[in-house]
Amino acid sequence: MPAAFPALPSLNALRMFEVVARHLNFRLAAEELGVTQAAVAQQIRGLEASLGIRLFERLPRGLGLTDAGRAYSTSVRAALAMIDEATRLLRPAPAHFTVSVTPTFASKWLIPRLGDFAEANPGIDLRLLASDRLSHFHTDAVDLAVRYGQPPFGHGLNVELLMEQRVVAVASPGLLAGKGQPGSFEALQGFVALHDAHDYWPAFTAALFPGHSPPTARNLRFNQTALAIEAALAGQGITLASQAFVAADLAAGRLVQVFELQLRLDKAFYLVWPRNPRQGDELQVVKNWLKRQAADS
Question: What's the family (predicted)?
Answer without folding.
Answer: Belongs to the LysR transcriptional regulatory family.
